[in-house]
Structure formats: C-alpha cells, structure tokens
Backbone:
C-alpha cells in the first residue's frame, strides 16, 4: 500500500474528524478515536493538529477550501478566541446560490418552470455537497451558543427568507401555484431537499435509492407541486372556453 503524503494524511484526518463531530458532537468526539480511525497513533495525530480545538478548526478550513488555498503549517495551531467562528461565518457567507439571486433580480422569467427547476437543483446540489459539514454545524451548535446563532439565526434563516421571497413574488404574479403561506412553502421545499440530500445519508435509507434518481425525482416532484398546469389554448382562467 503506497505511503500517504502529509497532505493526504491531513485530508484523512479532516474527513474522519468531520464524521465524528457530525455524529457525536464536540464533547463526544475523542482525539484518540479520530487518530485510530485515521490509521495513526494519538501522538502522530498531534503532529497534524495541536489540539482538539485545532482539529475542529481544521474541519472548517478543509470544507471551505481554505486549507487548499493556503496549506496550513503543521501542526495546525490551536485557534484564538472567536477564530473558528470567524472562519465559519466567512465560509457560510461565501457559499453562493447565484441562480436564485438572479431570479430575484428579474421581474418575469421567460420560463418559470425551468427557472424553478434550476433554483431547486442548485439548492439540492449545495446540500448534497455540504451535508457532512452541515451535520457538524447542527450537531455541535447545541453545545456552542455562538455557532447556534451563526447558523440558525443568520445563515439558515437567511436561506429560508431568500427562497420565501422568490416564491412569494412568483405566486403574486400568478406564475406559481398560490399557497396560504410562501414562507411555509419555502420551508417544505428546503426540508424535503435536506432529507433527501443530507439526512438520508445518515441512516439505513442511504442505500435504498440511487443518488441521481433521488435528485431527479425530488426536483421534479417539487416543481410539479408549485408550477400550475398549462391551460389549453383558448381556455379562460376558470376553464371555460
């Protein structure tokens, strides 16, 4: 078996740490267990990260691409007060959803069905890619009030608000099927995407469905629920010719 480079070892440490923090939380994660699952001794682990705090910090540097942009000096040092939270907040701000932002800047799309499909697909892809990190954030937020605020009060709430605003505008224009509350509709869409793109992978259901089939079915299901059926030419709104 080929010997791993230090960069490859660091990636493996970040991968295992992501799984453990996401499953066990901050307090429940043990550096000795991370080391063992990464195939090294605890002493060897501390040649890559200085402490458990540094291990947690590494997870976010890795997922937000910061360790690739600026490879850290090893061992990754223990972060200062507020440093990890600053990395998380900056990383969440940098995660972009350009399709929905463009839609919010447009009065009326040429094809609302295609616009909605692209928006839902974009959001699904984001959740599907980042779900291991999202699991870390949600699991550890219950132990860290600052992280809880950054995620639930800002990033997550802002995501719901953005999608709710889009749905409300298109519903008001008669382009999407009206709902009693667009914000609730946005929540239904997001929770559906989250279960299939994220939570499905955490349980026994992960092997029941093929990822691409799930993705296509979820996107089409949501769009079918929100896009009105096209009326035959010559029919009025009430269906009378």
Residues:
């Amino acid at each position: 078996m080929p010997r791993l480079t230090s960069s490859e070892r660091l990636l493996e440490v970040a991968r295992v740490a992501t799984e453990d923090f996401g499953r066990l939380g901050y307090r429940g994660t043990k550096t000795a267990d991370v080391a063992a699952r990464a195939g090294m001794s605890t002493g060897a682990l501390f040649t890559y990260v200085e402490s458990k705090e540094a291990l947690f910090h590494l997870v976010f540097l890795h997922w937000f691409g910061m360790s690739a942009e600026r490879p850290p000096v090893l061992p990754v040092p223990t972060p200062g007060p507020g440093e990890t939270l600053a990395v998380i907040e900056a990383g969440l701000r940098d995660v972009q959803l350009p399709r929905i932002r463009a839609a919010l800047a447009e009065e009326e799309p040429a094809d609302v069905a295609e616009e909605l499909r692209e928006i839902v697909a974009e959001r699904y892809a984001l959740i599907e890619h980042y779900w291991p990190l999202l699991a870390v954030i949600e699991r550890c937020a219950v132990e860290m009030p600052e992280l809880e605020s950054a995620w639930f009060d800002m990033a997550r709430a802002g995501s719901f608000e953005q999608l709710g605003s889009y749905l409300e505008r298109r519903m008001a224009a008669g382009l999407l099927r009206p709902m009693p509350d667009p914000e609730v509709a946005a929540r239904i869409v997001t929770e559906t995407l989250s279960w299939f793109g994220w939570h499905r992978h955490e349980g026994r259901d992960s092997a029941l469905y093929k990822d691409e089939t799930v993705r296509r079915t979820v996107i089409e299901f949501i769009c079918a629920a929100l896009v009105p059926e096209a009326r035959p030419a010559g029919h009025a709104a009430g269906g009378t010719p």
Observations:
- Confidence is low (pLDDT under 50) at residues 232-241.
- The domain at 95-226 is CATH 1.10.357.10 (Tetracycline Repressor; domain 2).
- Residues 112-141 form the longest helix (30 residues).
- Residues 78 and 209 are 41 Å apart (CA to CA).
